[in-house]
Amino acid sequence: MGVLTDARAILMTADPREKAAAAHDMRRIWLDDRIIGVSSGSLPDQPARPTHPELVSPSKVPRRRLGSPQGRGALLHAVAHIELNAIDLAADMIARFAMHPTINDEDRSDFISDWTSVCDDEARHFLMLADRMASLGLSYGDHPAHNGLWEAARSTRENFPARVAIAPLVLEARGLDVTPGMIKRLESVGDKDSVAVLEIIYSEEIGHVAIGAKWFQYLAALQQESPESYFHSLVRSHFKGQVKSPFNDKARSLAGLSKSYYEPLANN
Predict the structure, then answer these.
(1) CB-side exposure of 248: number of CA atoms within 13 Å?
(2) Model-level pTM?
C-alpha cells in the first residue's frame, strides 16, 4: 500500500462522492504514515466516471441565465465538473510523477504533501458544490459537460514539466480569471449561498496555482532553463487551446505568476 496505490484508486473510482472520499482518505493516511509504496498497476488514460453527465464538445454545453435556480444550478454544475476533474488531475500528478527521476529524493515527500493537499481541497470543493446543487434540486450528471480538461492531461501524460505547466498554470490559473465574474453575477441575483462556496474555492485555488508555480520553477531550475521561456515552449508544444485574456493579474501575481509568463502567449 502507500500513497501511489491510494492515488491510483482515486483514478479508478467512478462515483463522484466516493472519489472525493478517497481523496480525503489519501490525504489523511499520507499525513499519518508518509508511506510512498509502489505503483499497484497501470494508470488509466481516462479516469473512471459515472454514466452521467454526457460528455459533449464545449460548444454544446448549454449556457443559462442566472435568474432562475435552474440557471444557477447549471453554472454550479459546470464548476463541479471542473472540480471533479481537478481531483483526478491531482491524483494523477501523484500516481504518475511522484517517483519521476527529476525529483530529488529529499524533495519527494514535499511534492506528495503538496499534491495530496490539492487533491483533498478539490474533493472538498466538489462536495460543497454538489451539496449546493442539491439544495437547488440538481445532481451532478444532470447537465452535459465536456472533457477538455482531461484531454489536456492526456496530452501531457509522458511529459512531467508540460503537465505542471498546463494543469495548474494554464487550466487552473484560468479559474482565477473567470471566478470573480461568476461571483459578481451570482451576487447580482442575490444567491449568497452559491457566492460563499465560490469565494472559498477562489481563495484556495490561488494556493493551488502557487503550488504549480513552485514545482514548475523547481523543474526549470533542474533543466537550467528560464522559467518563463521554458513555460512558453511547453505550452506552445503541448496545449491545443488558447491562453485567453483578460487576466486576473492580482491573483496570478499572488500565486507566483508574473505577466511575463502568460502575456506573451496571449499575444500569439
Answers:
(1) 22
(2) 0.95
